[in-house]
Amino acid sequence: MDETRVIISTPFYTAYQSPNNRVAIVPSSEITATDAELSRHPSTAARQEDTEVNHLEVADEEAKADWKKKLGVLVAKNLIKAAVETDGKTWTGNVARSTLLSFPRNYELFVKKKGDRHVPRKDYYLYGSQHVRTFRSPLEFVPHLIWLFQGQPLKTDGDPDCSCKYCNSGATQSEIHKRLLPHAGPSRVRMPVLPDGPKKSKGAAISVPYKDYTKLNKPS
Ligand SMILES: [Zn+2]
Question: Nearest to residue 191, comparing CAs of 87, 102, 92, 72?
Fold first, then answer.
């Protein structure tokens, strides 16, 4: 087999594998495959300033590619591999060489430049989600991306059944890191090149116990 082939296709994404086992994950461009809207993007208007800058602009392609690469590795490891296996196929993709080809529809990466105009501090933010104002790193976004790729399931109360730290306020980012990167430290981890982990149970790659808020107001 010497051609790029589809290894899995759902209404929410398609994953392709090339002959060298690279995996490219393409979010569906359908409006039903995203929770993002352009109206959620920030203003990028910049005041004219002499020496100091403080504004947002669309991030450069290099920064976007870096995020998409990191997201691709984490999604391949935590969702695509299990989805392919659940589909009855053998996973032969190279997790470490997986990438996302584009952000989900209406998501965009912005950079905030602050400080000296020649060497400003740069902080990156992913905008677009209707549920979450910004994601500040690929690790913050990946649980929410997996939720999008699972078709945006809702809890019984109508809230997103998503395990990201914003939708699921009970989860701390360090718990999420542990779940996604079981061998890494709690936080501020560098994105490693992840080997294929031990075989996990099929189906949902990430599960968060449902928090029972109904007990909070229980009379004593
Ligand atoms: Zn979320």
Answer: 72
Q: What is the ipTM of this complex?
A: 0.99
**Token pair of 186 as six digits:** 């709690």
What spacing in Å lies between the alpha carbon of 13 and ligand 1's midpoint? Answer: 17
Q: Where are the domains of the chain?
A: 5-187
Rounded CA-CA distance 135/142 in Å is 9
Tokens standing for residue 194: 């992840």
Could you tell me the CA-to-CA distances from 69 to 36, 66, 72 in Å, in that order? 20, 5, 5
pLDDT digits (tens, 9 = 90+) for 169-191: 777 777 777 777 766 544 444 44
Name the burial class of residue 179, with classes exposed (0-12), middle (13-18) and buried (19+) by CB atoms within 10 angstroms of its CB. Answer: middle
Rounded distance from Cα 10 to ligand 1 centre (Å): 20
